[in-house]
Amino acid sequence: QMQLVESGGGLVQPGGSLRLSCVASGHTLAYYPIAWFRQAPGKEREGVSCISSEDGSTYYSDSVKGRFTTSRDNAKETVYLQMNSLKPEDTGVYYCAAGGLPSLEVHEYDFWGQGTQVTVSS
């Protein structure tokens, strides 16, 4: 069983930046595509970004493209989400997930972290 633990969330002003980390244990991170999802109160969980296992290709939702960057350090069993130019609508609980295919779809992912809260507010 793979365990994923997110960290790095917090309160930030609009226009600010945060970097989230997702540390894996139990399975080798390098074998899995890793995605970041977020869920705002009263809304469905949505895919934000994904990084493939094979060549490190990245995919982003239109809402974060150009502002967020995902990267991975397989030696540290860690995936990162750098979030810049944050907006209030980026507020939510952010989850990392490991799955079988690179995708922004919830159903493609088998292992999930517990989430970290990101709040963008002045």
Could you characterize the architecture of this molecule?
The chain is mainly β and 122 residues long. It has no helices and eleven strands. It has strands at residues 3-7, 10-12, 18-25, 34-39, 46-51, 58-60, 68-73, 78-83, 92-99, 109-112, 116-120. The strands form two sheets. Strands 2, 4, 5, 6, 9, 10 and 11 form a seven-stranded mixed beta sheet that branches. It has a four-stranded antiparallel beta sheet with strand order 1-3-8-7, with no helix packed on it. It starts with a strand and ends with a strand.
Structural features:
7-stranded mixed β-sheet, 122 residues, 11 strands, 4-stranded antiparallel β-sheet, mainly beta
How would you briefly describe this protein structure?
The chain has strands at 3-7, 10-12, 18-25, 34-39, 46-51, 58-60, 68-73, 78-83, 92-99, 109-112, 116-120.
Q: What is the ordering of alpha helices and beta strands?
A: EEEEEEEEEEE
What overall geometry do the principal axes of the alpha carbons give?
globular
Could you tell me the strand content as a percent range? over 45%
Distance, first to last CA: 40 Å
Q: Rg, please?
A: 13 Å
The whole-number mean of residue pLDDT values reads 96
> Structural class, please?
mainly beta
Q: Which stretches of 5+ consecutive residues score pLDDT under 50?
A: none
State the helix count: 0
Number of E-type strands: 11
As an assembly, this protein is single chain
What's the helical proportion of residues?
under 10%
Q: Describe the largest sheet.
A: 7 strands, mixed
Q: Topology, pairings included?
A:
Layout: E1 3-7, E2 10-12, E3 18-25, E4 34-39, E5 46-51, E6 58-60, E7 68-73, E8 78-83, E9 92-99, E10 109-112, E11 116-120
Parallel strand pairs: 2-11
Antiparallel strand pairs: 1-3, 3-8, 4-5, 4-9, 5-6, 7-8, 9-10, 9-11
